[in-house]
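Re: beginner question about structure tokens

> Can someone show what the tokenized structure looks like for a real chain? I only ever see the sequence side.

Sure, here's an example I had lying around. Input first:
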Amino acid sequence: MTHKSKSLKQLALQKFKKNFWGVFSLYFIVFVGLISVFAYVVAPDNSQHANQMHLAIHSKKPGFNVTMLTIPSQINVEQNIFDKIFFGKKNTDTEVPITDYGLEGDQLVYKEYASEGIEGAEKSIQLDVFPSESVGAFIKEKTFIFGTDKYGRDLLSRVLVGARISFFIGFVAVFISLLIGILMGSLAGYFGGKVDVVIMWIINVTWSIPTLLLVIAITLALGKGFWQVFIAVGLTMWVEVARVVRGQIISVKEMQYVTAARALGYNDFRIITKHILPNIMAPVIVISAANFAAAILIESGLSFLGIGAQSPMASWGAMIKDHYNYIILGKPYLAIIPGLCIMSLVMAFMLIGNALRDALDVKG
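And the corresponding structure tokens:
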């Protein structure tokens, strides 16, 4: 009876599958990733940045329901389906919350929504503004599941669209940190000597600067914006990767398989990329998962300080900044909902990092 020996990858995958929280976190991260990519498909407000404002219904509680009149715009905007799906609809129509409406001759008379105890203004509009179909098609009941923010925007739509920044900053920041960290760590660990001294000096100087302060400095140098924050966060996270890669390479560069590769005449680049790096990637993978979580928190902090994603772009950190004072005004959900989103995504990355650490532990 023969037994097939399982590879280390298969054993690690088996161990990972047995970790409930690791698998659950993986599915949750994939779910958030799909939401962030197709946010405008599932969001009730599919306008760009989910920025459809209705000041008359600002700061309404979750489940708030109102009749919405859509007044068609005379401006024709050409937009392809790809642009609508991934970047939102360029909406030029006007949405007006109303409490009552009726037809009088060739006019639609409606009463605008107003806060409790205040009578809304009565207005009219010519029926020829609407296309040939029934005017009723432009008057619909609208429910705001998470309520509305202080500008009367749909909070659920803003949360869904805001997931895009928090999710993708992790990918971009981790990619940049791996690119720089693996390069610097490999050079320092493999060649040693003066190369190691110079690189370790750069690492120690970078390490000594507070992360948030360094990000703020880089952001101010590059300018406020979407991609600037991604690059700034990535440029501050490579140090830990470089230190781990350096330490791992120092511990394995004198092992027999590396000595054999040198004896066969392979160049240093091939030895590092083909023989050493594949064998030391386990701790780097674990650090990358932790860096995902750290990048999300840093971006949220920057947005809270007003340096991150700029208005009207939706960001969980910016949503907390806009509404943190509502916590003491009896509407804490406006800040708590995006806060819970940040917490759950960060926790998912930390849990998957712990699961990967256990699965890739060869001593386990």
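Each token stands for a local structural state, so reading them left to right follows the chain. The chain has 14 helices and five strands.
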